[in-house]
């Protein structure tokens, strides 16, 4: 009887035919071990046997490990091998969760689920190559499973861009769908906030126009809050100035604080092209969190034209030297604002004195 030690010996010898025969053993643990061992062989002969196990083995463990073995081979093998494995994987959705964990957690939990260590990038490529809706959704949702979320999004976006599949259409359709809580139970689904983030990372030339249309069409619909948040996040990632009007409109039109905050954050990331709108938000907005995004962005942009708005909207900060110190970093362009603080007898004397010291330092250094 071939035990697991014998299978390990076959793997070390590179005996592909012996490992393929071991896929027929009685014990599921041995069959699964043989499948994992074939993952590193990179031999086209193993594909048909693993596909047969994937589709017909009565053991969930064996089907799972066969799928994972094909994923490993696809990630590291030749173009011919990748195509053969991709066709097989598209028939077995159970592998997606394991691969998405690999994308999210890189080398740690991935090894437990895959039986062979895949890098984050290799797992992403394997998922994307199956070109299925489940794979796209798994890539998007898996990105938030690890510590380095931004890197995971970059890796997944690269993988999706590298395939000829319809990942963009799948994600934009999910955001447009405005699903209600009880719709499509049991159907594949994706987190719409993460979907918007991924669309921004993928950088498809259609993205800005499509996400802008989402905001324009649905800005009065609160049942799609996460879709609107996702659209705003995607536009923030893109930093496309043409999104400014749509983002401004939703800041003032939406009844959802979450949507309005994310739209304000997107405007802040767009920066100088959105300066006038950020000034308007800082002056008009009642919600403190939304106003804060605009106010902080204006302080960071350091544009002289925004100084009156900063001085007016930032009065609540003058009880502390925070605003004065930030304006001091602007240098000479902030001198009128610092003078106004110094001369305002309603302000805390300590803050006025600090403003005077900063102005004196500017004169000395000049």
Task: Write a structural description.
The chain contains 23 helices and no strands. It is mostly helical and 366 residues long. The chain is elongated and about 90 Å long.
Summarize the helices and strands and which ones pair or pack.
Elements: H1 4-13, H2 16-22, H3 28-39, H4 45-56, H5 60-76, H6 79-89, H7 95-105, H8 108-114, H9 120-129, H10 133-142, H11 149-162, H12 167-176, H13 192-202, H14 207-218, H15 225-238, H16 244-253, H17 257-270, H18 275-284, H19 288-301, H20 307-313, H21 322-330, H22 335-343, H23 349-365
Helix pairs in contact: 1-3, 2-3, 3-5, 4-5, 5-6, 5-9, 7-8, 7-9, 7-10, 9-11, 10-11, 11-13, 12-13, 13-15, 14-15, 14-16, 15-17, 16-17, 17-19, 18-19, 18-20, 22-23
A few lines on this structure:
With 366 residues, the chain is an all-alpha fold. It has helices at residues 4-13, 16-22, 28-39, 45-56, 60-76, 79-89, 95-105, 108-114, 120-129, 133-142, 149-162, 167-176, 192-202, 207-218, 225-238, 244-253, 257-270, 275-284, 288-301, 307-313, 322-330, 335-343, 349-365. The protein starts with a helix and ends with a helix.
């Amino acid at each position: 009887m071939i035990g697991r030690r014998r299978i390990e010996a076959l793997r070390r010898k590179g005996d592909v035919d012996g490992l393929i025969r071991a896929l027929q053993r009685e014990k599921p643990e041995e069959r699964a071990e043989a499948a994992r061992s074939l993952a590193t062989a990179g031999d086209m002969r193993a594909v048909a046997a693993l596909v047969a196990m994937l589709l017909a083995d009565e053991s969930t463990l064996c089907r799972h490990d066969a799928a994972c073995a094909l994923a490993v081979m696809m990630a590291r093998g030749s173009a011919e091998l990748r195509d053969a494995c991709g066709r097989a994987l598209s028939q077995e959705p159970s592998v997606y969760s394991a691969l998405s964990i690999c994308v999210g957690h890189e080398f740690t939990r991935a090894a437990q689920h895959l039986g062979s260590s895949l890098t984050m990038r290799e797992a992403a490529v394997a998922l994307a190559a199956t070109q299925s809706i489940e794979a796209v959704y798994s890539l998007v949702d898996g990105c938030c499973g690890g510590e380095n979320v931004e890197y995971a999004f970059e890796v997944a976006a690269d993988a999706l861009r590298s395939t000829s599949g319809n990942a963009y259409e799948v994600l934009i359709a999910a955001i447009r769908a405005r699903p209600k809580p009880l719709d499509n139970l049991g159907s594949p689904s994706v987190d719409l906030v993460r979907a918007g983030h991924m669309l921004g990372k993928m950088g498809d030339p259609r993205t800005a126009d499509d996400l802008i249309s989402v905001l324009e069409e649905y800005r009065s619909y609160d049942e799609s809050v996460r879709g609107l948040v996702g659209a705003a996040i995607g536009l923030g990632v893109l930093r496309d100035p043409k999104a400014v009007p749509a983002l401004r409109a939703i800041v003032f039109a939406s009844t959802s604080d979450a949507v309005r905050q994310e739209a304000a954050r997107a405007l802040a990331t767009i920066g100088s092209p959105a300066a006038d709108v950020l000034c308007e938000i800082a002056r008009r907005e009642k919600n403190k969190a939304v106003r804060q995004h605009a106010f902080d962005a204006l302080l960071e942009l350091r544009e002289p034209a925004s100084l009156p708005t900063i001085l007016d909207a930032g009065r609540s900060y003058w009880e502390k030297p925070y605003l004065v110190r930030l304006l001091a970093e602007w240098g000479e362009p902030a001198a009128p604002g610092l003078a106004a603080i110094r001369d305002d007898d309603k302000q805390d004397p300590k803050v006025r004195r600090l403003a005077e010291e900063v102005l004196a330092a500017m004169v000395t250094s000049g």
